[in-house]
Design brief:
The complex is a heterodimer of chains A (343) and B (353). Chain A has 343 residues and is an all-alpha fold. Chain A is built from twelve helices and no strands. The model of chain A is unreliable at 1-32 (pLDDT under 50). The chains are: A mainly alpha (343), B alpha/beta (353). The interface between A and B is large, with 45 and 56 residues.
């Protein structure tokens, strides 16, 4: 871990010319002893991240988005509205919102949905909630599977390694969207008949499971490579020579060295999931009504692009900003965790 | 700071002879063959180490020298059981550890440690120095009197580091300091034998001397035995009681330091010694130049393995493998049918010293 950000330390010195000489130069003044604490690689990464302007800006965007999503019920309580409330009286005879810019008013800050008359801001805020939840839960699931499989694949030798590699190749060969298109409706029909509508949570869980099952491969490959490159390192051999077991080597020696790339993968997976989730909603296999969802809002708005472009604009802009901020933050995180890597 | 250095008067920096005659480490017929996939999918064996016999007595240092690829490191890894040997036996303190399992090995691990070559790869970058040095204690469930932290600080002091640096990370240290951390880690379990795998070849020349002197002081004060793997003959002469010269997976000559350096019998040893850079002579005067490359360990030459590059080789050398025995009244063991006689030239010997 070479880095230039390290300030000249107070006590570091080259190897003393002879240890005897070091007695004079090194003996600390009596009473003035201070604990010498080194900065860990993590602390250094954190310092680098804090200095990065892009990281600060994108982190701020994300924090605002997360706060808004978390406080969605509070907003509903303040405005006295529910995302499912329909303000049909504010629509004209053609179902279009009355007023400028899609019915923007002091009551409805981002206007109303044409046709249904629901408040766009509340739909947006609750949709943000859905998107973020699905994206983070899928990323978590994918990472847990990916790290487990990757560590096993990197550590094991022989047939187990081959089986896992074969499994990864197989999973990578599946076209995701086609699989999702096929599996999500089929599984839903398997558990629920046409008459009884499945609860929204079921659909959300189904989407998370699909994402998780398809996206662990990248993490697994990455972790496997890291484990393979680290397990031959001499500090691992030193642990083995000292009599350490597999558990110690995996959890104490290897994992602390690979969590940085794992974190970067997670942070770059999340925006991908947000975009894919929106895409699924767009092809109508995403989250179903009445759960608010950004992707479905865009899908619904397509019919009104000519007459009410604002309806498309607001959810589109939200997804764009969210994905952009997450991607930039992931890049900044990678740069700060591994300053040697180039873009 | 360094109690080790302070305690040592310069007078005894001479020839401390090994005391106990009983061997601490006894290696017999140690062999390591690596299977590789050859051309056309055929299987082949790399004979990295092919039948080594040597003993290390308590408190003795054995230097293992030879050029790159002759099996020195493989031997070292087998001794601490990081690699499993193909055949042969390793006996440590009277117990056969060649095939001991991890649980059986555990009490012996404490007596048998290794120092690695690359100080940049041998320390976990995410652990503090304190954690690195305490690792052997931790994995063996040892709770030293006065606590782990106190023990670690003692160890750091022993190797000439500031014990206050307990909480620092490896990236904050220089190469020489890192190697000292690696030494402290090897000492944590109070071993009897340390395998030092080229401990100074990754270091700057000025730092090499410090680390070597540290190792020598530790060896005397703690009565450690060393298997010292190196390709630097000057370093080995400074540090080792006995020297084994390896060529292509075999020991060609083994004996006391003075015998090897002053009266080498094997032509290969002579060639190696003549290659030590000498500032007193200009140019390659007196240097024995070996023709050709080291043969592949996939298919080593028949008979004497050195015969393809030896200037004294006869037909006899190709058919009969020379045994490692005393020859021509020498005190060392030499594996050569036609050993050299006499001392190295005086000037050369003086320069080497």
């Amino acid at each position: 871990m070479s880095d230039m950000s390290q300030p000249p330390s107070l006590t570091a010195h080259g190897d003393p010319a002879a240890p005897d000489v070091a007695v004079e130069t090194e003996s600390p003044p009596e009473g003035g002893r201070r604990e010498i604490v080194g900065r860990s690689p993590n602390q250094l990464a954190w310092l680098r991240l804090k200095r990065d302007r892009t990281a600060r800006l994108s982190a701020l965007t994300l924090v605002v988005a997360a706060l808004v999503a978390l406080c969605a019920p509070l907003l509903g309580w303040l405005t006295g509205m529910d995302p499912t409330d329909k303000f049909v009286d504010r629509l004209n005879d053609f179902g279009m919102p009355i007023g400028y810019a899609g019915g923007v008013s002091s009551e409805h800050w981002l206007g109303l949905e044409p046709g249904s008359g629901r408040d766009i801001m509340l739909q947006l805020v609750y949709g943000l909630r859905t998107s973020l939840f699905i994206a983070f839960a899928s990323a978590l699931l994918a990472s847990v599977i990916g790290v487990t499989v990757g560590v096993v694949a990197g550590w094991a030798r022989g047939w187990l390694e081959s089986v896992i590699n074969w499994l990864v190749d197989l999973t990578l060969a599946f076209p995701f969207l086609i699989f999702a298109l096929a599996v999500i409706p089929i599984l839903q029909d398997r558990f629920y008949t046409e008459r009884e509508a499945p609860p929204p949570a079921f659909r959300v869980a189904l989407i998370i499971a699909t994402f998780g099952l398809f996206s662990w491969t990248y993490t697994a490959r990455l972790v496997r490579g890291q484990v393979i490159s680290l397990r031959e390192r001499e500090f691992v051999e030193a642990a083995r020579a000292a009599g350490a077991g597999t558990g110690h080597i995996l959890f104490r020696q290897l994992l602390p060295n690979i969590w940085a790339p794992i974190l970067v993968t997670v942070s770059l997976n999340v925006p991908q999931f947000i975009a894919i989730e929106a895409a699924l909603a767009f092809v109508n296999i995403g989250v179903t009504e009445p759960t608010p969802d950004l992707g479905r809002m865009i899908y619904n708005s397509i019919g009104y692009v000519a007459s009410d472009p604002w309806y498309t604009l607001f959810p589109g802009l939200t997804i764009f900003l969210l994905v952009l901020a997450l991607n930039l933050f992931g890049d900044a995180l990678r740069d700060s965790l591994d300053p040697r890597s180039t873009r | 700071m360094s109690t080790v250095n302070g305690r040592l008067p310069a007078a005894i920096v001479g020839e401390p002879e090994p005391r106990a005659p009983e061997a601490l480490l006894r290696v017999r017929g140690l062999t390591k063959h690596f299977p590789v996939r050859g051309a056309l999918g055929g299987r082949a064996l790399v004979r990295a180490v092919d039948g080594l016999d040597f003993d290390v007595r308590p408190g003795e240092t054995l230097g293992l020298v030879g050029e790159s690829g002759c099996g020195k490191t493989t031997t070292g890894r087998m001794l601490v059981r990081l690699l499993d040997s193909t055949s042969g036996s390793i006996e440590f303190a009277g117990r056969d550890i060649t095939h001991a399992r991890r649980g059986e090995l555990r009490p012996l691990r404490q007596d048998l440690q290794i120092i690695f070559q690359d100080p940049y790869a041998s320390l976990n970058p995410r652990h503090t120095v304190g954690r690195i040095v305490a690792m052997p204690l931790q994995v063996n469930g040892i709770n030293p009197p006065g606590g782990t932290k106190k023990r670690v600080q003692e160890l750091l002091e022993l190797v000439g580091l500031n014990p206050e640096h307990y909480n620092r990370y490896p990236h904050e240290f220089s190469g020489g300091q890192r190697q000292r951390i690696g030494i402290a880690r090897a000492l944590a379990l109070r071993p009897k034998l340390i395998v030092a795998d080229e401990p100074v070849s990754a270091l700057d020349v000025s730092i090499q001397a410090q680390v070597i002197n540290l190792l020598r002081d530790l060896q005397r004060d703690l009565d450690l035995a060393f298997v010292f793997i190196a390709h630097d003959l000057a370093v080995v002469r400074h540090f080792c009681h006995r020297v084994a010269v390896m060529y292509l997976g075999k020991i060609v000559e083994i004996g006391d330091r003075n015998d090897i350096y002053q009266h080498p019998q094997h032509p290969y040893t002579r060639a190696l010694l003549s290659a030590i850079p000498d500032v007193t002579t200009l140019g390659p005067a007196g240097r024995i130049r070996l023709a050709g490359d080291v043969p592949t360990p996939l298919n080593p030459p028949s008979g004497c393995r050195f015969r393809t590059r030896c200037w004294k080789a006869q037909d006899h050398c190709a058919t009969e493998e020379p045994a490692l025995i005393t020859r021509d009244g020498g005190t060392q063991l030499t594996a050569c049918h036609y050993p050299e006689r006499g001392a190295l030239s005086e000037t050369k010997a003086a320069a080497v010293g």
